């Protein structure tokens, strides 16, 4: 249903499903990641009236898992590029991952997707610094295709 891409790495299309409506991608070597692309694979659409909130979590042994809202994807906006290089560990707020224990290694960050109602998604405010790249859909798809093509050669 979802994919995750970091430039220079293989595309991840196999998130860990931690609940019926929650998925997690692991990001090793996250200190060297500036942007992350989260996208729908095109095989399974969201149910009517639903979309996916995209979250990011740093490994933090002191604060535990703190999830930061980056933004969202929907059937009408099936991909988004998020800048994560300016995010800071420990910042964040309430999130749908709640008290779930999501296994996380000390050297690995995580990107989570939570399926939520659209009316709820549009009212949420992403964490400051989690800018969604402002390019049109054609450019997002083209960038994703170019990155995948170059990486797979």
UniProtKB/TrEMBL annotation:
GO CC, any one term: cytosol
Gene Ontology BP annotations: cellular response to heat; protein import into nucleus
InterPro entries documented for this protein: Hikeshi-like_N, OPI10
Annotated family: Belongs to the OPI10 family.
Subcellular localization: Cytoplasm; Cytoplasm, Cytosol; Nucleus
Name the record gives this protein: Protein Hikeshi
Name of the gene this protein is made from: CK073
Domain Hikeshi-like N-terminal: 6-128
Record's keyword annotation contains Transport: yes
Species, as recorded: Salmo salar
Keyword terms of this UniProt record: Cytoplasm, Nucleus, Protein transport, Transport
PANTHER family, alphabetized: HIKESHI FAMILY MEMBER, PROTEIN HIKESHI
Purpose: Acts as a specific nuclear import carrier for HSP70 proteins following heat-shock stress: acts by mediating the nucleoporin-dependent translocation of ATP-bound HSP70 proteins into the nucleus. HSP70 proteins import is required to protect cells from heat shock damages. Does not translocate ADP-bound HSP70 proteins into the nucleus.
Domain of life: Eukaryota
GO molecular function annotation: Hsp70 protein binding; nuclear import signal receptor activity
């Amino acid at each position: 249903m979802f994919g995750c891409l970091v430039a220079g790495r293989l595309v991840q299309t196999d998130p860990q499903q931690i609940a019926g409506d929650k998925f997690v991608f692991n990001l090793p070597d996250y200190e060297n990641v500036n942007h992350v692309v989260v996208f729908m694979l095109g095989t399974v659409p969201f149910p009517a009236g639903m979309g996916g909130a995209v979250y990011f979590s740093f490994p933090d042994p002191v604060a535990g898992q703190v999830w930061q809202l980056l933004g969202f994807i929907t059937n009408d906006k099936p991909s988004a590029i998020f800048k994560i290089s300016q995010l800071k560990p420990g910042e964040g707020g309430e999130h749908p991952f709640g008290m779930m224990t999501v296994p996380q290694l000390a050297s690995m960050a995580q990107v989570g997707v939570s399926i939520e109602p659209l009316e709820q998604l549009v009212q949420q405010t992403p964490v400051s610094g989690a800018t969604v790249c402002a390019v049109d859909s054609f450019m997002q798809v083209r960038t994703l295709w170019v990155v995948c093509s170059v990486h797979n050669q």
